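FAQ: What does the model actually see?

It sees only this:
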Amino acid sequence: MDVHPTDIKLHQASRVLEIHFADGRAFRLPYELLRVYSPSAEVRGHGPGQEVLQTGKRDVTITTVEPVGHYALRPSFSDGHDSGIFSWEYLYELGEHQDELWQRYVDRLAKAGASREP
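And it is asked to produce this:
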């Protein structure tokens, strides 16, 4: 799928990245969701089953965002994480599946006895 953003805004007070795409879809992605689903090896591991559960990220913010070519963004998070490169396709996918991804995250935290609290 060829998706390109037409507008991207960071809302620091609500800690949400708002992204509008050329097909008319728009998503409001919480910083916490972006952080815990970062496409970096630090979060995803190097293969299936190697994902690392991210805990204590409730209050994470995005401090800066850098464009990566014409295909992605690289946000820097307040906890120092800055190695995730979010392609337009991945941001679109996060937006489309936000509710189920959030529930999966909350369920994994509960199963691990972990918390969103810092």
